[in-house]
Amino acid sequence: MPGFSTRAIKAASRVPDAPQPPVNVPIYQTSTFEVADATELRELLEFERPGHSYTRYSNPTHAALEAALAELEGAEAGLATASGMAAVHGVVLSILCTGDEILIPAAVYGGVLGLSRTVLTRSGITTRAVDTTDHDAVAAAIGRRTRLLWLETIANPNTAVADIAALSELAHGRGVLVAVDNTFASPALANPLALGADLVVHSTTKYIGGHSDLIGGVLLGSAERVAAAREIVVNAGGNASPFDAFLALRGLKTLGLRMERHSSNALAVAEALEGAEGVAAVRYPGLRSHPQHELARRVLRDGMAGGMLAIELSGGRPHGERFLQRVRIAVHATSLGGVDTLVSHPASSSHRQVSEADLASAGMTPGTVRVSIGLEDSADLIEDLAAAARPD
Ligand SMILES: Cc1ncc(COP(=O)(O)O)c(C=O)c1O
Question: Concatenated DSSP letters for 22-33?
């Protein structure tokens, strides 16, 4: 008879039969999977047969999240990643090589600028920023070395909306691929692949998870493009954790409901704050005053415009910093897309090293605050944010 430890290890590794499917996808919290022989392992590691070998390569909980998001984005395939940035990195490095150029929006999530400054520069990949709401400027910026046009459905932080269909047509006509960060919209509001994009990424940390309790990402597209990105992600070690994939699946079930409430709350707040004391401007795609309001109605579903607002305070940087200290219901924290309303001040956080001129080309001023509207009662949010915006 084997000793106690041997028996305990074997007994505790026995996977139960579950003839009745669980209502929720289980967390396959295992780093590795038993194989029958060396051929099986080799074929699994080469993705030549279905199944799983090692969780950095794939895992059933990841596979469930990938299949769910592929279905909701109309993609052939998907890959769950450790973070939104791991998805961005996987997409970018699967398309660009030394000597190539990526075209990014002038108003873009700061992490893309960080990736460019560090990883892309070292790899000999150049980055060119352009106002992607100006299609002539995009056409003029596409050069011999341009391989990829990067877009955000709704831009972080200035909420500019990308005309994905027109820009995809323009880029494809010049042999350039298009990848869209759909994080701010979520698949409940927009499907960039249906509009012509080649690849989509999400930070599932945000709306898909929805509760500010996970870090994750996903990239989606054709089976071929996802396989190319998977090679980068697997080898760079950017694959998701099963627990975070489970949380993203749980969040996904209520995404539709949450986006309705994020959108209705955000519209109520935007309308109340536009013209309020201390507020120079409110940028929200659901407002008629937004420069791409009509486009937003075409790109985004059912008249919803999501939960992200950019509020320009009249008193510049000190006003922005004071706003953060004055909120009582909203929380001063980075990130977005969760049930709690979060506020941040790009000029003193994500864009702290950016000059005022570059802030302006990204559609911001030193007094711009970014608000991720949560699921609280809208009247409470309006009272809180209006009081915080009031000048001294
Ligand atoms: C639009 C957008 N894309 C990507 C990311 C990166 O996501 P993560 O922090 O999960 O890497 C963020 C994070 O704030 C974001 O706002």
Answer: PSS------SB-
C-alpha distances (whole Å) from 260 to each of 188, 234, 256, 299 are: 9, 35, 6, 16
The partner residues of 161 in beta bridges, in order of sequence, read 154
Mean pLDDT of 2-24: 96
* DSSP structural state of residue 42: H
Q: Are 307 and 265 in contact (CB under 8 A)?
A: yes
Q: Which atom of ligand 1 is nearest to the CA of 87?
A: 11
Residues recognised as catalytic: 56, 109, 181, 206
Q: Which two tokens stand for residue 318?
A: 């000190």
**Span from the CA of 150 to the centroid of ligand 1 (angstroms):** 14
The yes-or-no verdict on residue 235 having pLDDT over 80 is: yes
Task: Please list every protein residue whose CB sits less than 6 Å from any atom of ligand 1.
Answer: 83-85, 109, 111, 152, 156, 181, 183-184, 203, 205, 215, 217, 335
On whether the CB atoms of residues 180 and 40 are closer than 8 A, the answer is: no
Mean pLDDT of the residues in the chain = 97
pLDDT class of 274 with cuts at 50, 70, 90: very high
Q: Tell me the CA–centroid distance for residue 85 and ligand 1, in Å.
A: 6
Report the distance separating Cα 14 and Cα 7, nearest Å: 11
Please give the distance of CA 95 from its chain centroid, rounded to a whole number. Answer: 19
The pLDDT score that the predictor gives to residue 63 is 98
- The crossing angle, in degrees rounded to 10, of helices 223-236 and 84-95 is 110
Tokens at 263, concatenated: 């959108």
Phi-psi region of 173 (alpha: psi -120 to 50; beta: other; left: phi over 0): alpha
Q: Whose CA is nearest to atom 16 of ligand 1?
A: 109
Nearest to 93 by CA among 237, 236, 240: 236
Please check whether residue 51 is in contact with residue 44, taking contact to mean a CB–CB distance below 8 angstroms.
yes
DSSP E strands in the chain: the ranges are: 77-81, 101-105, 126-130, 146-152, 177-181, 199-203, 217-221, 279-283, 308-313, 331-332, 342-344, 368-372
CA 264 – ligand 1 centroid, Å: 23
- With left for phi above 0 and alpha for psi between -120 and 50, is residue 42 left, alpha or beta? alpha
Task: Please give the C-alpha separations between residue 377 and each of 191, 268, 271, in angstroms, as whole numbers.
Answer: 29, 10, 15
